[in-house]
């Protein structure tokens, strides 16, 4: 039996780690029995870390004579002893799954496959009633153009396919993994140590997001399988004495809080949504305008406030502050409110960790005012915080 497991990456880990071993069971006459490892023929999910196909050789004793579960079905079970949060959520399970690969003739120019493409058989297949595509196509790349060729050759002449500087690592990784948007290499650094670590190499990778998937600026992360492949590639080109760590960035949320007078007060709700979207685009790493994706970033409060004032539908801005939310340890967060900063001092947000990347909060706090009367920003009270977003229990900020 072949089963396709369509998994989400909503629980993608920040660092590549090996998942907890899984055990398969089958139900026979109301008794769960362990499926021998030899009967697990193929597992392209790498232990339920990414979507893939699992092929099982089911024993003859499996049957549908079970009262503990709904009748007329064969039942399988898969379990792990611990660390269940390391596995992604399950979208769906499909039976009779196969992987289809498109092979172009040698004289045909390569083309990039659209993520929205839908594939179907060119002709009917005897014995097959219906073919359904699950998920999006992947792989494939457009033919290299002359500007790309010149860039690749220039980089090759510089690093000579050997790595000696962080720049060399970054260019070679980007060339090998086109699904990446940006790579940052930190020499003599480890995310588990709070001090310089000679002999260590920390590589942070940011996945590329198509324009259609940037809405809301999601915390996109590479799954642990891809992180492992990147690490294996780096090990193949690096010195054997280098300790290599490949991880996702730590996303640090920024929420803008302000009171705004719009040019058309009667359409305040509409312009609040427009301003919220504009601020998210300004702070989103994947957008071509605004803050962009930069490590070692800094966000000056006056720059964000100036950007809001530059919008054609905004007349006046006051009561301005920002919240900076960072994860300290697993499921523990810290919050900093710029309203704490004394009047007259320049307010600048900076990353808590070198591998941190700023992203906008899911929703900014925007109020409307009817006059141009300045209002001094106050520290955010409990009644203005949102459970599941900005409401954090404990800690005094940082």
Please describe what this structure looks like.
It is a single chain. With 398 residues, the chain is an alpha+beta fold. The chain folds into 3 domains: 1-142, no CATH class; 146-247, GMP Synthetase, Chain A, domain 3, CATH 3.30.300; 250-368, no CATH class. It is built from 5 helices and 17 strands. The strands form 5 sheets. Strands 11, 13, 14, 16 and 17 form a 5-stranded mixed beta sheet that branches. The protein has a 4-stranded antiparallel beta sheet with strand order 4-5-1-7, with no helix packed on it. Strand 13 and strand 14 form a beta hairpin. The longest helix is centred in the last third of the chain and has 16 residues, at 268-283. The N and C termini lie far apart (54 Å).
Largest sheet: 5 strands, mixed
Q: Mean pLDDT, rounded to whole units?
A: 84
Backbone structural class: alpha+beta
Helices and strands, in N-to-C order? Answer: EEEEEEEHHEEHEEHEHEEEEE
DSSP helix fraction: 10-25%
As for the number of domains, it is 3
- Give the CA-CA distance, first to last residue: 54 Å
Rough outline: globular
Number of helices: 5
Oligomer: single chain
Q: Strand fraction band?
A: 25-35%
Over the alpha carbons, how many angstroms does the gyration radius reach? 26 Å
Low-pLDDT regions? none
Question: Based on DSSP secondary structure assignment, what is the total number of beta strands?
Answer: 17
Compose a concise summary of this entry.
With 398 residues, the chain is α+β, with helices and mostly antiparallel strands. Helix content is 16%, strand content 26%.
